[in-house]
Design goal:
two-stranded antiparallel ribbon; mainly alpha; three-stranded antiparallel beta sheet; 13 helices; 8% strand
Length: 425
């Protein structure tokens, strides 16, 4: 799903800006294969998007110069970034209502077909506002890429985008006309816009691999210090668990004869289990606990594995923990009188509570520390870029959303009429 946090929060002439949160995903998990997105015919969910600087997904498509543009001899001079205009402008690139609506067209149409006008209006307002914020944030990322990537690196991104475009055309009928139709039908975007989206993804990959990844390798001392600190807090403790099956034998009454008869039956079953008879069958045919008997003596799945001290009958649990795996524990007697019970126990699995070693968690620690440093570095880039940005006042932001909303509400009746006509055929 799309990330929805806004880069810019404004309400006065001196806006407060916040850096978008960095999702906790796999560290620098890049994939050179094209990330061709899919969407249902109705498209109930927002369009899925490519990777962000943190290895997750970019919120919305990244606006970028078309692939066909001539290569610049020097990186663009972005001394002053502007966000302004009817629907907004960032770094000289306008944000058009049609682009915003088309990017969420499938999602908006799905809502229109099932919601009354008033409810749809509220939902559409949220979706449009989210898309506008996403686009401004992505333009901010693009400014970071263009400011910090050299012409050769940006040319590499264009070349990879060209290869993606050729593959997309091949996978959609082999003709540009068919590819344009697929782009419009599946994503609500033109082929050129999809290309810009892919270009932004490639810029992101190159930026992360060449400008961030080499700077985030934690030292061995850092890893060891992090391990010791978290070990002392118990973060690497493994509680362990056990899986055992049991046969429960109950006395029919408090009468001594009934108690002795139950005890004799339990001892006989215990001997048969020790002799190697199928424990599941013994439990199904002899246990007085119907719930356990139906599962061949095993507790319910939601209980397994059972942590030490978590089982309701401590004498049974302790006997099981003391026995070896695949063995039958000594017969256990619990309670008095009518509550007298005997338990035949077979241990199936067991993991003793322990603390994971440094070797076991080293790779995980390395990735977590690297990801934290990666996010810190990207945060720094974003904060510096935000310092160069002008953002619209709150009233201007509302106007941007309302302008797009006027178009969306005109589409509401058209979408419903189209659906009614299709159903009538």
């Amino acid at each position: 799903m799309l990330a929805t946090s806004a880069v810019v929060i404004v309400g006065c002439s001196s806006p407060e800006v916040v850096v978008p949160p960095m999702p906790d995903e796999r560290f620098l998990d890049f994939d050179d294969d094209a990330d061709v997105r899919t969407i249902d015919e109705v498209g109930d969910d927002p369009i899925q998007t490519p990777l962000t600087p943190t290895g997750s997904q970019t919120p919305g498509r990244v606006e970028a110069p078309p692939v066909e543009r001539p290569e610049e001899s020097e990186p663009p001079q972005l001394e002053y970034v502007t966000v302004d205009g009817v629907l907004g402008e960032f770094n000289g690139r306008a944000v058009y209502a049609a682009d915003v609506i088309n990017a969420r067209k499938n999602q908006l149409r799905a809502r229109a077909l099932r919601l009354p006008r008033n409810q749809f209006g509220a939902e559409a307002f949220r979706i449009i506002q989210e898309e506008l914020q996403v686009r401004m944030r992505n333009k901010l990322y693009l400014s970071v890429y263009e400011r910090n990537l050299n012409p050769l690196e940006r040319q590499q991104a264009k070349f990879l985008t060209m290869l993606w475009r050729e593959r997309f055309i091949t996978e959609n009928g082999g003709s540009e006309a068919e590819a344009r139709r697929a782009s419009r039908d599946q994503f609500g975007m033109t082929l050129e816009q999809l290309g810009e989206d892919e270009y932004g993804r490639r810029l992101n990959d190159i930026f992360m691999q060449k400008h961030i990844a080499p700077r985030v390798r934690p030292a061995a001392a850092e890893l060891r210090e992090a391990y010791e600190d978290r070990r002392e807090k118990g973060e690497f403790d493994v509680p362990g668990g056990i899986v055992f099956a049991l046969i429960e034998i109950a006395a029919e009454s408090a009468d001594p004869i009934a108690i002795e008869a139950a005890k004799a039956r339990a001892e006989a079953l215990h001997e048969r289990a020790l002799a190697g008879e199928d424990f599941g069958e013994l439990a199904r045919n002899n246990s007085d606990n119907a719930d356990y008997a139906s599962r061949g003596g095993l507790p319910p799945d939601w209980m397994l594995p059972i942590a030490r001290g978590a089982f309701a009958i401590p004498q049974v649990a302790e006997a099981a923990w003391e026995a070896e795996v695949d063995t039958v524990a000594p017969l256990v007697a619990v309670g008095e009188g009518e509550a007298r019970r005997w338990y035949v126990i077979q241990v199936r699995e067991k993991e003793t509570p322990r603390t994971m070693t440094f070797a076991e968690v080293q790779r995980r620690l390395n990735n977590e520390l690297a990801l934290a440093e990666q996010n810190r570095l990207v945060d720094d880039y974003i904060r510096r870029e935000l310092g160069r940005a002008k953002v619209p006042e709150l009233a201007a932001q509302r106007l941007m959303t309302q302008t797009a909303m006027e178009v969306v509400m005109q589409q509401y009746d058209a979408w419903r009429a189209e659906e009614a006509a299709a159903s009538a055929r």
